Amino acid sequence: MKLTDFLDGIGRPVAYYPSLVKITGSVGAGIFLCQLLYWKGKEADPEGWIFKTQGEISEETGLTRSEQETARKLLRERGLLEEKRAGIPARLYFNPCIDKINDSWSKVSEEAKKTLKNQQNAGNLQTSMRETRILECGKPAD
């Protein structure tokens, strides 16, 4: 069987943007957030809360229970994710904080622009160099 034939039947890919690690804090948190953003607007809840079981998220992303818990913790600490328990039996609902995600990304983008500008300007500056001793005879000092 060809690899490409296998990949056609393996399932849906997950959209992941590596640069999101700058705001999420980890690859797992980036994958988790991307998956929630995929479901944003497709949820049944009129207030925009997304219900996904741990098993569904694992099936969709490949993240283990432990990886999901770590990702959720990082996203909550950064203010990028809200969670609530509701219903009987209690279910865990997620709400990506769109405004905070956008604000965090704007800050990271601005810092990256400043860094790039400073790096470009650094090539134009004269730096003082320390004088070095050149061994004319080629023999090292004792």
* Number of strand segments: 3
Question: How many separate domains?
Answer: 1
* Alpha-beta content class: mainly alpha
Global Rg: 25 Å
Distance between the termini: 68 Å
Side-by-side strand order of the widest sheet? 1-3-2
> Which topology does CATH recognise?
Arc Repressor Mutant, subunit A
Average residue pLDDT: 84
Q: Note the overall shape.
A: extended
Just give the CATH class. Mainly Alpha
Mind sketching the topology for me?
Elements: H1 3-10, H2 21-24, H3 27-39, E1 50-51, H4 54-61, H5 65-77, E2 81-86, E3 91-96, H6 98-122
Antiparallel strand pairs: 1-3, 2-3
Helix pairs in contact: 3-5
Outline the structure in words.
This protein is mainly α. It has one domain (3-105): Arc Repressor Mutant, subunit A (Orthogonal Bundle), CATH 1.10.10. It is built from six helices and three strands. It has helices at residues 3-10, 21-24, 27-39, 54-61, 65-77, 98-122, and strands at residues 50-51, 81-86, 91-96. Strands 1-3-2 form a three-stranded antiparallel β-sheet. Strand 2 (81-86) and strand 3 (91-96) form a beta hairpin. The longest helix has 25 residues, at 98-122. The protein is extended and about 85 Å long. The relative contact order is 0.11. The mean pLDDT is 84.
